[in-house]
# Entry
Amino acid sequence: MTRKIIDISMELNDMTPEWPGDIPFSYELSVTKEQSGSVNIGKLQTSTHIGTHIDAPFHYNEQGLKTHELPLDVYLTQAQVMDVSGLEKIALSDLKPLEKNVEAVLLKTVSWQDRSKFPEKWPIFDESIAKWMADNGIRLLGVDVPSVDPETSKDLPMHQAMNQQQRFILEGIVLDEVSEGVYQLVALPLKIKGGEGSPVRAILHT
# Structure
């Protein structure tokens, strides 16, 4: 059987929007093949929360796991895509029945249409989703927006609910052309010692 791979990652380039006030993404050749006589060498600068990325619990909890401590099986697992598009707030009643052996849920809101601009707003995720995840053995929540909380939030209720239930977060995935269903997910973070997050190359495959 031929494996079908679906890339659900944002491309990183100088048009990728950063969080307001955060470090923008940049990449350039610091050494060219002509200069070195053998190879091109690149240099990049970016926030760890650019584009498609994971939040380590340390991002919102001083005692939380750091990036290098994360359990990798959380990001290498079976995921269910649920279409919740058109909603301003996503509650438990909007979620679809869980399929068997699913350990991650990816919510398709389709609310971030222009990925070259940071969105002014996106749907609110009800904190009760975190408890529902724990009750059903769902370890990872993926969303196709910059964050599980609003941009202006300081108390981060959804992040804190996820932390209380020991659930994990994947943000900025691209699900516009992905149908509802069950897929194998790969979204491994970089092994950044002491880190609070990491960009990821997220894919689904069947």
Summary: The helical segments are 33-36, 128-135, 157-164. The mean pLDDT is 97.
